[in-house]
From TrEMBL:
Lineage: Bacteria, Bacillati, Cyanobacteriota, Cyanophyceae, Coleofasciculales
Protein name (Swiss-Prot/TrEMBL): PhnD/SsuA/transferrin family substrate-binding protein
UniProt xrefs under Pfam families: Phosphonate-bd (PF12974)
Record's signal peptide: 1-20
Alphabetic keyword roster: Signal
């Protein structure tokens, strides 16, 4: 009798597990869509597979659990290459910054599904205490270091601060794209100013043991629009909606997976709905600096 009862309970357990699996899979099977088994995924501020795995391996694992899909990393050397890959159906799913998004949106009709906020993420322009510059207007005829072309915080953001301060970034001063060498160049007096993110500025001061008075900030910008998860326009809209719903419902798991990303840039973040009009400011900057073709 006991053996018979044990067998009955065992069969009920198997049936329950099978039912749970079936119900999970049916979430997608009920969609009127051709749902891919694998989503090809990239992050635009990374270069190479090794960096993708190091910084975003946790996110990939979390996405696989939340979306119940295999996530395959596809590395690219630039956001322009990632945009081309999205257009040519070599990638399905991209995590990207604001300036990169407007290029992707223009070239591929990329669909934004979820935004992710970043605390303490805004542009600054700082100078050396030795050069007596107090305002953006005083940078006319000077040299300013920035990060790289198209970078949200290291190019378009500080360029907008120059424009808002009354300068023409194409003719009124010289912009040098020095990457990680920009702040050291300012410290050595090789440039007159540096423009970039508040996060990189504060980290440099901390690493060098400097106070803000050594490299004073002459202007701060507004908070940047959110980073975005975007998908290919080739994916079925009902599947895309289901992806977004699942990500919002499981945002704690996704955000926890980003806690170790470089500079702690997603500390205090949250997932929010995506709004395309928030990115028009970067479309305007691209046009002013003569790169309007990127966003047309």
């Amino acid at each position: 009798m006991k053996r018979r009862n044990f067998l009955s309970y065992f069969l009920l357990l198997i049936a329950g597990c099978a039912s749970a699996t079936s119900n999970s899979n049916s979430i997608y099977s009920n969609l009127d869509a051709n749902v891919p088994d694998t989503l090809r995924f990239t992050v635009t501020d990374t270069q190479g597979l090794q960096q993708l795995q190091r910084d975003y391996g946790g996110l990939r694992t979390a996405l696989e659990e939340v979306l119940e899909k295999k996530i395959e990393f596809v590395p690219f050397e630039s956001y322009i290459a990632a945009a081309a890959a999205l257009q040519s159906d070599q990638v399905d799913f991209v995590f990207t910054g604001p300036s990169e998004y407007v290029v992707m949106s223009a070239r591929t009709n990329a669909v934004p599904i979820i935004g992710i906020t970043r605390s303490n993420y805004y542009p600054v322009i700082c100078v050396s205490a030795n050069n007596k510059i107090k305002s953006v207007a005083q940078l006319k005829g000077k040299k300013i270091a920035m990060w790289k072309v198209g970078s949200t915080s290291g190019h378009l953001g500080p360029t907008k601060l120059l424009i808002d301060g009354g300068l023409n970034p194409k003719s009124d001063l010289e912009i040098l794209l020095l990457g990680s060498k920009g702040l050291p160049a300012l410290q050595k007096g090789e440039v007159d100013a540096w423009g970039g993110s508040s996060v990189k500025y504060e980290k440099f001061l901390k690493d060098e043991g400097l106070s803000e008075s050594a490299l004073p900030v002459i202007v701060k910008g507004s908070f940047f629009p959110n980073d975005l998860f975007v998908v290919s326009s080739k994916l079925d809209s009902s599947f895309v909606k289901e992806m977004g719903d699942r990500m919002m419902k499981n945002q704690d798991k996704l955000l926890q997976s980003l806690s170790s990303v470089e500079e702690g840039k997603f500390k205090g973040s949250k997932l929010v709905s995506a709004n395309d009009v928030d990115y028009n400011q970067f479309r305007q900057v691209y046009k002013i600096v003569g790169q309007g073709s990127f966003v047309q």
